[in-house]
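At this stage, I put together one protein's amino acid sequence and its backbone structure tokens, which the following lines show:
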Amino acid sequence: MIRFDRVSMRYESGTTALNELSFEIGRGEMAFLTGHSGAGKSTLLRLLLLLERATRGQVVLDGRNLSQTPDRHAPAVRQGVGMIFQDHKLLADKTVFDNVALPLMIAGERYADIRKKVRAALKMVGLEDRERSWPLALSGGEQQRVGVARAVVGMPPVLLADEPTGNLDPELSWELFGLFRTLNQRGVTVLIASHDLELVRRMRQRVLVLSKGRLVDDLVPGAPAR
């Protein structure tokens, strides 16, 4: 589903964000990315969204070689990926319903289908009674769950999250990770960048550890560290 083959990313400033990075995540797998600030976690996720391009190597997503995908096909790639950000990125002037509906509206779906899918997504995250609320009227945890609903409303096969619990307390963080586990159990491939090592450990899933743009460990629950 996701494959990095000797991927390097070097910015014009001379900074190397990723260095000869290789790994593979299978369809329906759940994995975490950890590492120090600046280790390359966010850059890795941005490459999967075609927000940036690797300097060298191959990035493959669901059988498509993103390294050879032209910019005009980037929107089609992104439609197959749900993305959750730390700061929610909700539109304050739109209701919860409209925020979640946005990807479907951009895709040109019929309103009857949009309404059905949005309500199903909100029910999944426990916010079916808040569809007419404004984002600023919600708690931080509720806002993040709206972000999750928006990311999965189109039922993408891949879900990415970049430090999604950075602004949440431990209880809400655990609740959100439990939601990710539920989505994974439904067949979604999930990749989460997180600095919360204790929370990651409790999830007992595969952990990819980055340092200075390199993969320095690939930990599987129950297996000895390399």
